[in-house]
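To illustrate the input format used throughout this study, we show a single complete record. The first block contains the structure-token representation of the backbone; no residue identities are included at this stage. The design step must infer an amino acid for every position from geometry alone.
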């Protein structure tokens, strides 16, 4: 299959996109109307899945069917895998003063159960994003151990749907990390924001080790700050990044045209203030 660029947003149900994406603030079916404008979208609602050691919530079959019936055959989803797989410890839960370990961390069985739960839209899933939080020494003692755990996980899961890995530790971005991805046939998720290095610099440094599918997430550096400025009304640019956008557009063209990568670009409202407007700005350079 030839390399391609798939552009979409991070989630889609925003009434303030009325006039940009939707014909009203409350369309009958947000996703159906969204899919008439864009060819891809990130689903993040299933990421929030770990509510206790024995309480994991996987995608609901009724919702999966609803999504399947709302799109055209060419539409593609990027799905954030459940955090019950990617969290080393439970959020803010302690025992004897220590964080509670997540026994499902990098569980191949749980990942394959997750894949089964999205069977209804599997043919429309372009990539799955396995997002890790920042891992301090208490959560992961070394980058080498992290890579070892990842390799073991990948060897036991179904990878028929492309899998990409998103990390929030700049020190893990290394030759060893990208060689591991290359050897395993796994993609990288380029995260622009959250104190990670500029994605253009990362690509430039490790281009020779990059191939296959990748995800680009434009997230922005200051989520709370932009929410305050925008009032969570996402219909205009409030934090323009003109030079950065032009550079990212060039990067995307290079990835697709020269490196032959299948690229999923997901834009967040928090990047500039309005994901649809940012996409328009990016497309003017493509």
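Output of the design step:
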């Amino acid at each position: 299959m030839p390399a391609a660029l798939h552009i979409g947003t991070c989630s889609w149900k925003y009434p303030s996109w009325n006039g940009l994406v939707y014909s009203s603030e409350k369309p009958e079916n947000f996703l159906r109307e969204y899919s008439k404008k864009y060819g891809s979208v990130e689903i993040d609602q299933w990421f929030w899945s770990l509510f206790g050691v024995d309480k994991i919530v996987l995608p609901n079959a009724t919702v999966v069917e609803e999504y399947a019936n709302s799109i055209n055959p060419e539409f593609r989803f990027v799905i954030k895998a459940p955090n019950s797989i990617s969290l080393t410890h439970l959020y803010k839960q302690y025992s004897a003063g220590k964080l509670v370990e997540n026994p499902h961390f990098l569980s191949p069985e749980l990942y394959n159960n997750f894949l089964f739960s999205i069977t209804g839209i599997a043919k429309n899933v372009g990539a799955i994003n396995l997002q890790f939080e920042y891992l301090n020494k208490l959560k992961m003692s070394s980058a080498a151990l992290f890579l070892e755990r990842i390799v073991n996980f990948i060897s036991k899961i179904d990878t028929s749907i492309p899998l990409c890995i998103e990390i929030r530790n700049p020190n893990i971005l290394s030759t060893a990390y990208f060689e591991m991805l290359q050897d395993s046939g796994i993609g990288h998720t380029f995260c622009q924001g959250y104190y990670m290095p500029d994605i253009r610099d990362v690509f430039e440094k490790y281009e020779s080790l990059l191939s296959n599918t990748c995800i680009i997430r434009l997230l922005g550096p200051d989520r709370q700050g932009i929410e305050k400025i925008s009032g969570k009304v996402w219909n205009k640019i409030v934090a323009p990044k003109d030079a950065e956008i032009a550079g990212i557009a060039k990067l995307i063209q290079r990835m697709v045209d020269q490196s032959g990568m299948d690229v999923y670009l997901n834009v967040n409202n928090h990047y500039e203030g309005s994901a649809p407007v940012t996409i328009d700005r990016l497309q003017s350079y493509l």
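Structural context for interpreting the output: Residues 5-283 form a domain with the TIM Barrel fold (CATH 3.20.20.410). The chain has a mean pLDDT of 95.
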